[in-house]
Design goal:
Layout lengths: L4 E7 L8 H12 L3 E7 L2 E6 L11 H9 L2 E4 L2 H6 L1 E4 L4 H4 L3 H11 L7 E5 L2 E8 L3 H9 L2 E3 L2 E3 L4 E3 L9 H14 L4
Antiparallel strand pairs: 1-3, 1-4, 2-3, 5-7, 5-10, 6-7, 8-9
Length: 188
């Protein structure tokens, strides 16, 4: 069963609150977005969709311009960001020596179907870099096909999805454990 999607819509100007009716008239109805709920939070709204893949519809170029016109900015959840990202490893030496900006231009030029991917290099680890795409479908497509870069193919065996690890922290338990350690220490 698919899990519901969630996206934080941050108010650009918190002094001017946005009416939910205006949101639905401006965004949901014209763009035909499948929103199930819109909850008000301190910094804006949490928009809930029926499934995680529907969050992509709130992040299209048309939806972004419409959102910005009413003063809302989308904050991408970390889980969706990792679903949009792939990591390329075992890269050839002449590719790994290039800066991220040049790699982005080269990958965009050689792979016309990829829309402005973002390249992230990992400092001293030159044989590995991450590519963030604008949609989850692009990342899935790259996992099944190759990427051309400098007349070299980066094949699917060199590409894998970035892993998302959801870390749940209970601050009450942390506080309780630190209090127990203080109580357990003998007085000096």
């Amino acid at each position: 069963m698919p899990q519901f999607g969630k996206l934080l819509l941050h108010l650009l100007n918190p002094r001017e609150p946005l009416d939910k009716l205006k949101f639905f008239q401006t965004i949901q109805n014209p763009l035909k977005l499948p929103l199930t709920e819109l909850c008000e939070v301190r910094s804006g709204y949490n928009a809930f969709t029926e499934c995680e893949s529907d969050v992509e519809k709130l992040l299209t170029q048309k939806a972004t311009t419409t959102r910005m016109s009413i003063g809302l900015e989308a904050r991408l959840p970390p889980k969706i960001r990792t679903q949009r990202s792939v990591v390329c490893r075992q890269i050839d030496s002449w590719i790994r020596g290039k800066p991220a900006v040049e790699l982005k231009q080269e990958i965009t030029y050689r792979n016309q179907h990829l829309e402005e991917p973002e390249i992230i290099k990992f400092g001293q680890y030159t044989h590995v870099f991450k590519i963030e795409f604008t949609t989850i479908n692009m990342a899935s497509h790259v996992l099944q096909h190759e990427i051309l870069c400098e007349h070299v193919k980066i094949v699917p065996s060199q590409i894998y999805h970035e892993k998302f690890i959801d870390i749940l922290i209970c601050l009450t338990a942390i506080k309780w454990n630190s209090m127990q350690r203080k109580i357990a220490q003998p007085p000096t």
